[in-house]
Amino acid sequence: xxxxxxxxxxxxxxxxxxxxxxxxxxxxxxxxxxxxxxxxxxxxxxxxxxxxxxxxxxxxxxxxxxxxxxxxxxxxxxxxxxxxxxxxxxxxxxxxxxxxxxxxxxxxxxxxxxxxxxxxxxxxxxxxxxxxxxxxxxxxxxxxxxxxxxxxxxxxxxxxxxxxxxxxxxxxxxxxxxxxxxxxxxxxxxxxxxxxxxxxxxxxxxxxxxxxxxxxxxxxxxxxxxxxxxxxxxxxxxxxxxxxxxxxxxxxxxxxxxxxxxxxxxxxxxxxxxxxxxxxxxxxxxxxxxxxxxxxxxxxxxxxxxxxxxxxxxxxxxxxxxxxxxxxxxxxxxxxxxxxxxxxxxxxxxxxxxxxxxxxxxxxxxxxxxxxxxxxxxxxxxxxxxxxxxxxxxxxxxxxxxxxxxxxxxxxxxxxxxxxxxxxxxxxxxxxxxxxxxxxxxxxxxxxxxxxxxxxxxxxxxxxxxxxxxxxxxxxxxxxxxxxxxxxxxxxxxxxxxxxxxxxxxxxxxxxxxxxxxxxxxxxxxxxxxxxxxxxxxxxxxxxxxxxxxxxxxxxxxxxxxxxxxxxxxxxxxxxxxxxxxxxxxxxxxxxxxxxxxxxxxxxxxxxxxxxxxxxxxxxxxxxxxxxxxxxxxxxxxxxxxxxxxxxxxxxxxxxxxxxxxxxxxxxxxxxxxxxxxxxxxxxxxxxxxxxxxxxxxxxxxxxxxxxxxxxxxxxxxxxxxxxxxxxxxxxxxxxxxxxxxxxxxxxxxxxxxxxxxxxxxxxxxxxxxxxxxxxxxxxxxxxxxxxxxxxxxxxxxxxxxxxxxxxxxxxxxxxxxxxxxxxxxxxxxxxxxxxxxxxxxxxxxxxxxxxxxxxxxxxxxxxxxxxxxxxxxxxxxxxxxxxxxxxxxxxxxxxxxxxxxxxxxxxxxxxxxxxxxxxxxxxxxxxxxx
RNA sequence: GGGCGAUUAGCUCAGUUGGUUAGAGCGCUGUCUUGACAUGGCAGAGGUCACUAGUUCAAAUCUAGUAUCGCCCA
Length: 931
Description:
CATH superfamily of the largest domain: HUPs
Structural class: alpha/beta
CATH class of the largest domain: Alpha Beta
Largest sheet: 4 strands, antiparallel
Shape: elongated
InterPro entries: aa-tRNA-synth_I_CS, aa-tRNA-synth_Ia, Anticodon_Ia_Val, M/V/L/I-tRNA-synth_anticd-bd, Rossmann-like_a/b/a_fold, tRNA-bd_arm, tRNAsynth_Ia_anticodon-bd, Val-tRNA_synth_C_sf
Keywords: Aminoacyl-tRNA synthetase, ATP-binding, Coiled coil, Cytoplasm, Ligase, Nucleotide-binding, Protein biosynthesis
CATH topology of the largest domain: Rossmann fold
Strand order of the largest sheet: 6-5-14-16
Domain Aminoacyl-tRNA synthetase class Ia: 14-603
Main location: cytoplasm
Binding site for ATP: 529
């Protein structure tokens, strides 16, 4: 083995071997354990959030696979309607073509071509990360069988009256020219303006003033509303106003919606271009007036001088005209919330179109019940509040999109615009007895991507085809075990899956939903291209040069003027680029940071720390392998194990229990921490060091049983630890395991096929011996360094005082103490030793002296002992305070009181020892001080 | 405005049903190249647990309020 751990080379080696061996496929044996991958966008590349969540999923899958569960990790990607069209359109434009050159069918061909050539970037990247998914079952939402599920769902929902088509206000992206869902709208706080406009009364008796942030929409106003209780305007209700610039007369109505405190208490109502106004208009029987074309230019419903103007030009023109007519009263800055499309970044228009909707009352009720009843559980549990709030305020779901790429809506129209819904045109014709003479045209729109993702749980398991369902294990794997995802798609996807799978199968899609935090940069900022703080997980695995990183962060930006600042910040933060940490270190970092309910500030220093940890593991393995040889080691007989081997095995068993408990609560952070501490602080720092004396040639000759037991324990602990670590760091554990499996006597081809370790009962006797030994060694080491005693030079140790138990342990472990504390020999103290030439070390009741060659610096030793004394006094004080409190003694549980009593004894003892020692030194000090 | 969360060492975070002198990693200080590892060893410094009040024999932990920050919804 190399002296240092080199992730790059070894990680390349293992993945394809695993995949080829088929060990990621469900075994079909044991209790099923299934995880659905939230299908990433086919145009996407792996970002930190994916890498994080995939790591958690993979850790769980590998863990459960090793525990004998029948694991299925269902992976795949979704077809991402808008995003994919944008990518392919850009590709066409880069070739000098135009999207308009393409007919629908040809464009879709291009999309498929693109999909086959470059649509699997993210799945390749998932393999780099070590994702142990069953790739043979990978699905794409546009696959024929998944498409069949989509059509079937649409048709059935329509038959049940849960899907309807109708004119409604939707969020319209005038650039992409499609409807988008509420969830795809980002509300951004922006500085805008608000205008006060005078609407004259038709009877010439004054006017009313309305305030608006969108003056151009007055062209579509149908009325002005006031609050029914507003005394100021009581006589105005029912009167008519002259709508400026249009020559139209509009009435004043009364409606509760109006807030009399806001502005003048008069509100213009534009049902065609505002969601709230739509409601008001509907209540009062007004037909909405749509003044925009699909690209948000003014249409023919408006006066001629505005037609054809873009919405922003129209605003300028309207304001100018109002000024001219003396109807503009005021213009002032106004903080407002602007709705923007999350894909295009453009301001979204509430826009009146015919769209398809899914009714949400019945489905929403079902979705709520499935969670309220506990069939689906959120982890952490408080996410149920978010879910509940949304489910109780559901709007009907707009599922149609004015795109080409996606599942085409299975609805046909005849020349009279009668709608026929069915699985195919043929089915429609048969069912409705439509002869060949009747021309049918299919609806041009497609379903939004989330409609197909909502079916992910049951459609990937073969639904609705009974044969496929049997083959895929529908009954076996549904409900799946746990869904791991971010809070941001609870509504987009989680809720919709619960509703759809629940409605069509009567089952929940998953039993638990683990909601992860968000990965932020080391300063707590959200990662985004425009901030230039994005980290690419692949760069953390492979490393990246500074210049390349700067290029990556500043190329193809939406706002190129930020490039300079981003380049500068990047050069400051990563002066040497990013080193290669390897996939394992990245995975370990993610799991170590994965606490509950918290966002994660991703710090490269943590990643480096865990890379170092893996290097430590690597070297512990090197040491072990150097000492255990190539052959299978004989298993020591019962009773042949030395105390320290029993100790490390006991600690190992406790670690197994800790990891099991942590993982059952999804506390990945606690699981990895237990492993980190065990490997570094117990196995490496102590057991390895303690094994060295036993393995020395002379010692081994003298005590071959202990040497044998030690060798076997080294191999056994290392092998078991590798299995415990494997779900988190699959590559390095496989690499090392292949070398240690023979000495450890384990039969399997790959660590991923081994079984998860079972914890045995701990060994308290061995643990207490080892703790004593560690305390003694640490006390001696502290004394030596604090007094600047030559660290390398062997020194004698004198035992001044100790309990019979101490003396017995000294007898048993003397050789080890000598070795670890670098002592020449250990012997009882006697009168020959002048305390002035000794340093003191305390471990429990054991009082030890380290005689020094020359004069000890008495002042320094006094200071050191004083410090210890202070510490002990403080401890005693707090204990005494408690025990002095009658109510504490009376009320606290007996074991707590007893514990305090024991502690009091220990403190008193230490204080007595230290005080005596200090007294003697002071005495010496005085006699040594030249007068 | 409503809801959720956070505030613990210089930084990033643990801290379970209240019960040692509140822990870890990184960073920092000192020291050591000893045959696993300098991506390291050994030793050490560093905290008024945001603030206030309350409950309790006992509060980082429970309750109420305050402050600051973040997210979601309107």
